[in-house]
Amino acid sequence: MKWSKTIIPTLRDNPQEAEIDSHKLMLRAGLIRKLGGGLYTFLPLGLRALRKVENIIREEMDRAGALEVLMPALQPREIWDTSERYETMQNVLYHVFDRQKREMLLGPTHEEVITDLVAREISSYRQMPKTFYQIQTKFRDEIRPRFGLMRAKEFIMKDAYSFDTGWDEADASYQAMYDAYTRIFQRCGLRTKTVEADTGAIGGKWSHEFMVMADSGEDGIVECEACSYAANLEKAERALPVTKVFPDNDKLPEEISTPGMRTIDEVSGFLKSEPMRLIKTLIYLINGNPTAILVAGDREINEHKIARLLETSNVMLADDKTIEKATGAPVGFAGPVGLNIPVYADIGLRGYSGAITGANKKDTHLLNVDLERDAKIQSYMDLCTVKEGDKCPRCQASLKEKRGIEVGHVFKLGTKYSEKFSAIYLDEKGEKKPVVMGCYGIGVTRTLQSVIEQSHDAKGIIWPVSVAPYSVVIVVPNTGHNDSVKAAETLMASLEQKKIDVLLDDRDERPGVKFNDADLLGFPIRVVISERSLAKNSIEIKLRSAEKAEIIPIDLGESRILELCKT
RNA sequence: CGGGGUGUAGCGCAGCCUGGUAGCGCGUUUGGUUCGGGACCAAAAGGUCGAGGGUUCAAAUCCCUCCGCCCCGACCA
């Protein structure tokens, strides 16, 4: 391909709309353009890279034995009623109405569609295991689209669904996808980390996320310094802390005036006490019922954990009125003593004694609180978010906090959907059983941008050969020099015949412009053919990732390029 | 949805405070010179100043309403 025949609108300046490097570079390198918030057009160069990622995924899915299908993006509402996700996923669903005013949804994911299919088409244990996948556009009404392709309203996803006769069999399918994912991201040149994750609204028993480590990532992760434990902060656990018993723990609760002191910082500062000694009491509405959640003053509540442990998706902080009604005090003075709503406490608070809490009375706190003795706790559960320095739940070593971009997610779903859609099969004994499912997603467009986020420098993108829009760029510094142009065209034609993706920069531009654009666009291999090199009967080959170029005799150039393309 | 920011030529920005001719750099077009790391000379095109309303003799500029975009938060397979 000649540069003059395609369109690569590079930008010199960073567009002001972009915040992170990969987003800036995708715009500057002319890979994508924005239509509106969370909506992007792929330009020819961006599409080429996207297709490469898709093909890697397709190859590895096929290799793992998965079967490609293509499901409708437009879905009847009814199947979402059947799965009972019309409500739980309300806030990401796009609603569409046809001419009969029938409600349709733009698919944010396809568990419903595939399970409906399987319920109709699979009825015997002889037909399993089966894994289906598709690469398709998904639609989600994201509250806040961000960072270009990282979080968009319309994006491309590879989703896969496995169907097995039992749990052990399903584990094998899960493992096959897990292994395929590992290969996929490796082939894309990504360094990923696999972490244990929350299953969220999709449900299921167990899940892992594939994270691209990057400071700009939206997800917090902890990993153990010593063992292999790593988890998303939404899910991460910690070794049980030592019980805290503070001074004066034998005394009875005693009120103390704390005028206007509402926050942990204010109270601990005012009482000259460490925040850890305070018990933070927050009133939540859980399924609409006021409920108190307790954690130590130096910790944050993890609402994902509340939702999971109490088996609901309806967890929100209570409004001021509800709090006042439940505690009998203005916001900021809640405490567990004497509360007559359900109270759940974090496991770290078990045995807390000599602690400080709100007194459920304006401008007042309580000293010397012993949780067991003075409050009625429904149960102690793991309710707070792990933080740096907490101990590993497996080996007690310290946990470190990092950021990551979630590019893949694998779930063991179980029978949640198969039961709702009556995806039932007959086993060897003729008994009816629900199919056991797994589901697996890769954010394809997000993966593409992650490659750039992880592989770039001050000058631009550094593509791995596997996903580069073109593996080779041939630069002719002076297009006025006919011999250079001819040699370049010959080389391009010859490489193209060998199925190498080549771009020939035939623009009438100054050399500096061409070199800078080549660096910005990040093609892995740059070949320069000029009067200067031809005089020595040579061409110049430089890797984008390397400092220096190598000078190769012209008749050996092609084989050298082919060799470099393989690595 | 709450908080903050921003909207002026394709891109990046100035002008707004203190109302009066809409500017700069890059890019684009034409001609010429130049040609190994974002050249130079000359000429030119390109703007409902986000939208609507108001104040005023006069609004990019002041006031009101709305909208888009970006960031933080809430939320999120």
Overall description:
The chain folds into three domains: 15-236 and 401-452, 2-Layer Sandwich (BirA Bifunctional Protein, domain 2), CATH 3.30.930.10; 254-381, Alpha-Beta Complex (YbaK protein), CATH 3.90.960.10; 470-566, Anticodon-binding domain (Rossmann fold, 3-Layer(aba) Sandwich), CATH 3.40.50.800. Helix content is 28%, strand content 28%. The protein has 16 helices and 31 strands. The two termini are 22 Å apart. Strands 3, 7, 8, 9, 10, 11, 12, 21 and 24 form a nine-stranded mixed beta sheet that branches. It has a five-stranded mixed beta sheet with strand order 16-14-15-17-20. Helix 1 (21-28) crosses helix 12 (444-454) and helix 2 (44-63) crosses helix 12 (444-454). The protein has 567 residues and is an alpha+beta fold. It binds one RNA strand of 77 nucleotides through residues 9, 11-19, 34, 36-37, 89, 91-92, 108-109, 111, 138, 140, 142-144, 146, 151, 157, 159, 199-202, 207, 303, 316-317, 406, 409, 411, 439, 441, 475, 477-481, 509-517, 519, 528, 530, 532, 540.
